[in-house]
Amino acid sequence: MIKNVIVRKPSKNFADGITTADLGKPDYEKALEQHEGYIEALKECGCSVTVLEADERYPDSTFVEDVAVVTEKCAIITRPGAASRKGEEKEIIDTLKKFYSNIEYLEGSACLEGGDILRIDKHFYIGQSKRTNAEGARQLTAILNKYGYTASAVPVKQILHLKTGVIYAGNNTVIAAGEFKDNDVFKKFKMIKVDDDEAYSANCVKMNGHLIIPKGFSKSKKAIVDAGFKIVEVEMSEFEKMDGGLTCLSLRIPEDSSK
Ligand code: CIR
């Protein structure tokens, strides 16, 4: 069960963030509206949402998932791999202190972004991508082990983050796109395979018995509903233009983590 979720409003210079998507410039007002829709969807799933003010120093700071890894026992402050995002992680610490007494930090040459972390039960898959290096994976694994979790690394070759291409939907099922559809690591799970022309829709948020999914991907929607999942749909077009999926926009704190 997830009770508390943290989000950060998009900054006015949101369009100056990093993107590889060739979908045009995002509209700030529309992004704000979609962000509000995302918050409403979380509330519909029973969450209490802490909404942080926009941080104009960091155009990508609305993608708050990347700056911490949160579990029911501890929060781990990451070290973003993208140069323009370094420092964002410091701005989440005070907020996480309201929910956690155990806060851990990655150090030194470690790079790691939360989008690369996929949790399935007590195991954490750590994507090694352009944003997360081997030292980041090593340090995170050591911290997670200390709290009784296991972890293993998964190479991410073609996409931004691990969770851009694979998420856990619950009920022993993953939703996967692209390079993860045939990856042996995920063969032990039931898999909903997303078509290449709907690859963006692999990234959904599992939330208290629901899956929050992006609007406009009819084949994925049908496959997810047919597999028995209850869905809540949100408009994400402006975030998609900035390579941001649904998970990127929140830190979802598992229950029993509060002091
Ligand atoms: C970036 O490239 O860092 C942002 N424009 C998008 C970050 C998306 N975050 C995520 O997948 N967790």
From TrEMBL:
The active site is at 161 (proton donor), 248 (nucleophile). The keyword Heme does not apply. The keyword Secreted does not apply. GO terms for biological process: arginine metabolic process; citrulline metabolic process; positive regulation of nitric oxide biosynthetic process. One of its GO terms (molecular function) is dimethylargininase activity. It comes from the Bacteria. InterPro entries: DDAH-like. This is N(G),N(G)-dimethylarginine dimethylaminohydrolase.
